[in-house]
Structures are given as structure tokens and as C-alpha cells.
Amino acid sequence: MGYPGNYRYTRQHEWIEINGTGVGSVGITDFAQKQLGDVVFVGLPKVGTTFKGGEELATVESTKAVFEVFAPLSCEVLDVNRSLESAPEKVNADPYGAAWFAKVRILDPAELESLMDASAYEAFCPESKI
Amino acid sequence: MRYLPKSPIERSQMLSAIAARSMEDLFSSIPERFRLRQLLDLPGPCAESEIIQYFKERARENSVGYARFLGAGVYDHLRSVVTDTIIQRGEFLTSYTPYQAEISQGTLQAIFEFQTLMCQLTGQEVANASMWDGSTATAEAVLMAERITQRRRALVARSLHPHYRDVLNTYARSSGLDVVEIPFDTDGAVSQQALQAELGEDLAALVVGSPNFFGVLEQLPVLAQAAHSVGALLIVAIAEGVSLGLVRPPLEADIVALEGQSFGLAPSYGGPFVGVIATREKYVRQMPGRLAGETTDSRGRRGFVLTLVAREQHIRREKATSNICTNQALCALAAAVHLTLLGKDGLGEMALQNLSKAQFALGELLKIPGVARPFGAPFFNEFTLVFPRPVETINRELLTKKIIGPLALEPAYPELPNHALVCVTETTTREEIERFADALDAALAPLEVRA
Amino acid sequence: MKDKITEASRHTSQNEGLIFEKSSPGKRGFDLPRLDVPVVDPAQVLGDNYRREGVVGFPEVSEIEVLRHFTRLSRWNYAIDLGMYPLGSCTMKYNPRVNETIARLEGIATEHPLQPQEVSQGCLKILHLLEQCLAAITGMDALTLQPAAGAQGELTGLLLIRSYLASQGNPRKTVLIPDSAHGTNPATAVIAGYRIQNIPSDSRGQIDVAKLTEVVTEDVAALMITNPSTLGIFEERISEVADILHRKGALLYMDGANMNALAGVARPGDFGVDVMHLNLHKTFSTPHGGGGPGAGPVAMKRILEPFRPIPVLIEKHNGSLALEENRPLSIGRVKAFAGNFGVLVRALAYILAYGPGIRQATEDAVLNANYIRKHLEDVFDLPYNLPSMHEVVFSDHRQKANGISTLDIAKRLIDYGFHPYTTAFPLIVHGAMMIEPTESESKEECDLFIEAMRAIAEEAALDPELVKQAPHTTRVGRLDEVTAARKPILRWVGKG
Asked: CA-based angle C442:C444:C449, to the nearest 5?
């Protein structure tokens, strides 16, 4: 599937969209959805909540496991993707596009430095295990 | 030993196969100082007939032959022999939790039917495959309300079964939940005034029993409105399930915690029984306990599986909705068989017999001078009376006449001295009721004469 | 002509519908005796509370339909009565039938928990004897028989610990749990109000004693241990572990799920355990019944005795027994009434059958596990090469090379007439295969099991698709759990 160049990635397999506006989407990577298997449920945060980087933002469930989605960095939730509640399978089908979890406002742009770019994440993946 | 399918020869063959010299070798990984040198001092070994003999002797030391007017959370009801015929089948009795769905379809479909019956009874949208009993189901329902509302305070009616309140307190104390008791009024139901005073935006739930411990039916629509007005959930605990045959189901409740003992389970000195949590579909992911769901196999055939498993302890571990693993599956099966035998009309008729016999008993007992009825609210098959003397002394006399009298309320309710909880079901005969009335009359008579 | 015959070709016992689908108004399966008092008008007595329409949707079927329905369902189940369940840590042993008989005796099944103690001495003697037997088996000082299941026993144990520590001045904040623990352990610790800290296992699958020494502080309330561990291996340094905890005023809780390796051979009370629960539906033969009921009595050292749940069984001056509720230090009730009495009597019947010879059951259980291990360790990967007790844990590592997982092997085992072993647990073994035969399996059954597992190992190498698509011989194939979770259907809903 490849790794979108304008995204940044975490070691816990989340991505955040960077477009210069300070607001971007957040989701989980293709590697993560493959490890999980068929997604049956997505638990989304409340709009307006703020998270520190590394705090649990959302949950993703398969029939056999639960995966915590952590905030890639400090942010405020502006919008959530309700369509994932009725169609959780989108997470498997289109993890970088239609299966965005939340739109967030980045609170401290300096935190972006600690995230991986597409090539760094691609190198990181094979050793990693969810 | 008859439960061990090995002969001495086979044991020694197996020991050689694993290159062990003796059974003792098998335990070499246990430090020597912990290995017992002698056999334990335990009673037995007993032949099958000796085991039966032991328990028959114990049975003779109990209450066979006594008439009984006790309810208080455990009820005597008729049970068909067909129920035991089914649950005694080895395929149900000795089977495991249905994690391997392909070879557990019997258990899974039966659970699915049980869940359906519980929804139909309670008027709720979903029900689980069982909790341990009504008391723990109530406690877990409160924890569930806590998760749903994200609030840490609950109100519980003092008119709810004392054991249920005790269990709730045990669970609440350790999870840091604040539980406040609401007193009952002169009619035996929750005090509306006291309730209003305690309502607040920090409330997760209001918990009531209906019928409550005094046998009284609570005013659920009013209580629901009070709870909902502050965004709290109404939890209704039902200890006497047969009441649902005639009493309208708690539709306003957000969560129902039901005790199913009345559905074909023997009193058995307190257990095993079967609890159920039933609720609205939107809360299903916060609900504890197993759930059987309908699905299909690769060839499109209908089948059933345990589902929404991510809520449970073996997946979610410390974030699970509950720690429950083993539940009351066989008891739930017994209840399902019992209820399908009774059916719609049968349950209605059973409930009507309860109602009629209780009304008759009340009438007979109120004829006795000195006996009064303190609570005026409607009841199902249990009602409270007040006597002119302590209940314990009356019961001692009744016992000499082979009658187990009503429950004294004072120990759990010091504010109700000389009050007794009488239970009458379809199993109580008219003769027993009349004999009870006569014996009670005689027990109270000396006081009358002195006066 | 041919198409008219199709209806008869579906055999009902293979296609039994839901009981609701057989319902038709006016059918009844059970009649009540004649009412011997005047019937009342429910509308008048109950007023607004009257359920005018009855229970809508409740089935209306005859006695024979109910009997056939559930009999047919039962035939879709596997059961111990049919064959082995090699499920690790579940101890699926024979459920003796005499236990069912005594539980149903009049005077045993019929007793009300709140009836006067004068007419309950039989019940109380049973409880008393069971307490004594379980104390002897565990090497502990006191019992509570109230908890309804193992998980509730765990909660009770942790609440006892909490109350005891509080009485010493500080309930503390943390409970240590090994990464190999059963899921009920962490779930329970949270309900008991404790924070959890994971303790890693060392390279031998045992508690990492060095790590333990580091993390046990005065903030730790207890360590929850299973012994033998969930790998079926005895924790050799258990008394060191106990000492480390005790030196810092912490306690050792033991999950008694694996007591089937110890009963009559060693006593947890001797090797430093302060409190533990037992699973009567495991070690003590009470039937699983498709998922329960069980019972989880808790055995404890003297220091915890004052905190026991109420009611507590006591002996009065005149020698009679009573249930006492006046216990100011008690943690309260964990369940209504005194316990799952019907389960407790079955456990006592089991103990009476064996007497002191209960040791032999334990020996046979360990013998069977080691016999099976010996005959499979050349074909399946054994991650921890230490002596096994009553269960052995393999992994699917070798078969994974062909894309076969522990789940696939388990499903194929069904085609050979066995229930699967425990898959994917404990978590510290990737692709775990946990096998516990129990003492109830004969040499013949063990040999058949070994043959089946060896055949599957071969199939995994030579015909992997056969294993991956298993089971092939069951009434339904692998079921769609994904749709069941995405769009749950949790009840039958009638048409219209």
C-alpha cells in the first residue's frame, strides 16, 4: 500500500496528516490493520477533548483483540469519523483515507520532530509487533 | 478407585514410557520439604452407597416435612421433572463453555433462546447469558452505570433486599463508588421526598427492587423520571421473577438485574441460582457477561457464537467490563427449559395462583386479633405484617408445629420491630395457610387473654 | 413430482429451529394443579401494575416439543461424557453421577437459606465438613465458601488482603501480576481498587525473582501467582518469592486453578501462600454445565480470618452449628446467602469418594500429562523444557512454517473426535497449545489423543489446506465471528 509522504508516524502505528494548517486527520497504519485482522468495532473520542501525546485516543477491536490508538502528539479533537461506527471494516479497506479516526488541532508543533517520516516508518515496521 | 481408569499394569507401562521409576519421580520439581510424606487426613474413601447414606443422614437433620412461609429472595415454585431430564443429559451437564462454537451449538442456541426469553420477560432489548445471581447482577449493573455515565455516585433504596445492598456496598467500596441509601416511606416504598433531596448531576444510578424486600411494588415511572431528570440511569432489581407473569415489566428501567431462581431452580440452601442483566441495545458494549449471537457459517447455515468478546476478561484483562468468567450456564438452561414448558399462559397462570393465594393468606391472617398490615402499597406474593410480640418468639412456637414462619425483619431493619415478611406461592396449599393461621392465632392468644 | 418430496429431506434433528419458531397460541407444556383458594382479579389487585397482555412473544409449545427440542440441541454438543477435553487449566475431569443424586435429595435441594438454624443442622454440618477438608488439602487455617466462582474468589481474596493491610495502617496501592496470568487476575485487581504492575517471567517461564526483589516495596499489597504456573511448571523458588513479599509486609495470593497438580501431594499453606481460591468446578469435579455454575471458596491463613465475608460458620457452646453475621471486621457479603450450596455438596461428595486417596488422582493427572508430552515433544515445539506437572504447553512454531497456527491444529483435532486444547494462552507463549488431560483419561484415550496430534502434525507438513479448513465433520463449519461482532443479533425477534 505504501506510506503516504505527507503523513508522520508513531512507533505505535498511528499516523497524522501534515498539511501546514495545524489541523490534520489521525488514523492507524496499514501495518496495524493487517496485524489486527477484521475490525469489528471502533471506539471514538468525544469532540472537544484534548489529549497529550501518548494518551489513549481511541480503541479498535477485532474479534480476538483490542488495540489502543494513542494520540500521536498533544492535540484537541475537532471532529470524529462517525461512519466508522456503522462500517468498521473501512479500517481494513482504507486505513489512510476513508478510515480517518479524528480531525485534530496540533497544540505544540514542536512535537512533530519526534515522529517518523514515511521512509523511517517503513524501515521501522518489520521489527515491530503489535 | 472407580474414577481412575488405570490398572497397575498400565501405570507402570506409562511410567516406563516416560523413563520414570515411580510416581514420586513425577513430583521432583516440587522442593522436597514441601512434598507430603503421609496421606491427608480426610474422611473416606466411600463407596457410592456410603456417599448417598451420608447425605441422606444430613437431609434428615434439615426441614423435611415442614410447611414454609419464607421468600426474601428465594422462592418455592413448581418445577417440571422434564427440566432435570434435560439438564441431566451428559451433553449439557458435562460440556464446557462454548468457545469452540462448531461443537457447542447446543449450548449456544440454548443461550440465545435464554437471552430472548429474558428480553421478553423484562421488556428490555438485550440480555446476557447469565451473571452469578441477582445480588451480583445488581452490583455489576451499578458498575455498568458508572462506566456509561462516567459518574461516581449511586442511590440505593433501603427497601431493596439487604443482601443485595450488602453486596453492592462490598463492590462499591473497593471501586471508590459513593453509595447513598434512600429510606422507605410509610407505604413501604421508596420515599419520594428523600429521593428528591439526594438527586444531583453527579448521579450515575438509582437502584430499586420491585417487588421490593417488603413485597411491595415500587412506582417505577415516577422513579424513572426522577433519575432521568439528572441524567442518571434507573436500575431495577427483580428477585421474584414469577411476578413478571402478571406485573408489568420495568420498561422505564435502563438496566434490569434479574434473579432467575424462581424459574425452575431448587432453593438449595442459597445457590446456585442465576442472575441476568438486561438493558437497552445502546449499552450492550458496557454490559458484562457472555453473549451468544446469531451468525452463519461458510455455507450460509445459521449458527451461534459467543460474541462481543472484547468486553470480557480474557481479552480486555484489566480493562474488562467485569472479571466474570464461569457463569451459571446450566442454571440458565434449566430456566429456559422451565419457561418454555410453562409458556405464556402457564407463567400467567402460575403468577395468578401466587397472587390469589397471597391475597387469601393475607385475609386469613388479618382476622387474627393483634395482626396488622403496615404497608398499604400493592404486592405480588409477599407481604409484611406486624405482630404484637417479637417475631422470633412466635416462630419458635410455630416451629414446634412444623411450620417455618415468616422472616423477622428487625435484624435487617431495626426500625421495624415485630414486623414479619410472609411469602405464599402456588406451592403453598390452602390447608397449610389455614394451619398457619390457626397456629399463629394460638401463639398470639395468651397475650390477648392476659389483656 | 420430485419437487414435492423436498420438505421431508431435511432431517429435523440436524436443522432444529428456535423454540419460538415452533410456537402456536394455546399450546402448553406444563399444567398447574387446581387452585384451592378463590381466584382474584389481577386488574383489580394490581391496578396500573397489571401486565394485561401477558409476556408477549413467549413460546407456546407442548411438553414433547420442549423435550425433543432440547434433546436435539444437546446432540450438537461435545461433552466429557463423550470424550477428552484436553483444555489446559480447565481440569475437565469426570463429573461423578452420585454427586447429581445427592444434590437432588429431599432435605438437600429443598432447604431455604434463611430457615431457622434448628432445622438446618444437616446443611451446616455439610459446610463444616467441607471447610475442614479444604483446609486440610490446602494447608490453610480458615475458609469461606461464599464466592460463586473462581473470579469471585479472587476478588474476595484481594478484599481480604486489603482489609488486613488497612488494619495494619495502609491498604497499599499495587498488586503484582505475572504476564502469564489468567485474564481474571488483572480484571479482578482493578475491581478491588488496586493498580496493576506486570511481573515478567524469566527465560524459564518462572517468576523473575531478581525483578521481583526490585519491585516489591511497601506500596505493594500482594503478588497474585498461579502454581504450578499456567505453563504447568512448578515455581521452584516459591518460598523465596513468599519471603520477599513477607519481608515488605506484602502477601502472597495463589490462584488455585492448577490445584489438580497438588492435591494430596503438596499444600500451598506450607510453601508460603497466605490466601488462595479453589475452583470446585475444576479440581473438585463439579460439572461445567456449558459454562457454570461453579464455586470459588477461599482458603486463608489465620491473620485474614477476622475479615471473612459474612455469614461465618461457627460452633455454638451446645455443639450445634450456626451462621454468624456479627463480625465487625468482615469485608461484608460478596454474594447473597451463604454460597452455591448445590455445588458445594457435589465437591464434598467427590472428596468423600476419594478420602485420603485423593493423592492418587493427582498422580494420575501428572502421569497422563507427562506421557502425552513425551510422545509429542518430537513433533511440536516445546518452548520451556522444564518438568511438566498436570499440563504441558507446546507452541505452533514448527507448523507456522507452513502457515498453520495453533487454532488450525485445534480445529482439526475436532475431526478426530476430541475437543481442542487451550489455544493462544498463556500469552507469554506465541501460538500456545496448552494440554491438560486430567486423571480421568485412560491410557487408551491418551494413546488415541497422541495418535491424533501426530497425524495432524504430519498433515500440517504434507496437506496444510486440510488443516487450515478444518473442521470438516461438524454440523456447522467455522462461523462468521466478524459479522456477529459487527452487527450483533442477540435475540430472536418475531415477524410482525
From this structure: 100
Q: How large is the average pLDDT for residues C251-263?
A: 97
Is residue B167 within 8 angstroms of chain C, CB to CB? yes
Q: For residue range C380-417, what is the model confidence (pLDDT) as tens digits?
A: 999 999 999 999 999 999 999 999 999 999 999 999 99
B319: chain A residues, CB-CB within 8 Å = 66
Residues of C within 8 A of B208 (CB-CB) are: none
The CATH architecture one would assign to domain B81-338 is 3-Layer(aba) Sandwich (3.40)
pLDDT digits (tens, 9 = 90+) for B310-337: 787 777 777 777 877 778 999 999 999 9
* pLDDT, position B51: 98
User: Chain A contacts of B315, Cβ < 8 Å?
Assistant: 64-66
For testing contact with chain B, the best of A38, A60, A62, A63 (most B CBs within 10 A): A63
Residues of C at the A interface, defined by Cβ within 8 angstroms:
424, 481-482, 484-486
CATH code for the domain defined by B67-77+344-450? 3.90.1150.10
> pTM of the prediction?
0.95
Taking CA–CA distances from C430, the nearest residue in chain A reads: A129
What is the least distance, in Å, from the CA of A106 to any CA of chain C?
Answer: 31
Quick one: closest CA in A to C423, which residue? A64
**A64 lies within 8 A of chain B by CB:** yes
Tens of pLDDT along C294-327?
999 999 999 999 999 999 999 999 999 999 999 9
* Closest-approach residue (CA) in chain C for A39: C482
Q: Which domains, and CATH codes, for chain A?
A: 7-122 (2.40.50.100)
Minimal Cα–Cα distance from A69 to chain B, Å? Answer: 15
List chain C residues with CB under 8 Å of A41. Answer: 485-486
The pLDDT, as a whole number, for residue B173 is 87
> Can you tell me the mean pLDDT for B402-420?
97
Tell me which chain B residues have a C-beta less than 8 angstroms from the C-beta of A61: 310
User: Which domains does chain C possess?
Assistant: 2-74 (no CATH), 98-356 (3.40.640.10), 358-481 (3.90.1150.10)
More confident residue, B166 or A37: B166
Interface contacts (A, B; CB < 8 Å): 16
Model confidence pLDDT, tens digit, residues B422-431: 999 999 999 9
> Looking at the predicted structure, is the pLDDT value of residue C249 above 60?
yes
Residue with cell 480476538: A64
* Chain B residue with minimum CA distance to A39: B310
The pLDDT, as a whole number, for residue B450 is 44
Nearest CA in chain B to C135: B42
Task: Say what percent of chain C tops pLDDT 90.
Answer: 90
Cβ distance B163 to C333 less than 8 Å, yes or no, reads yes
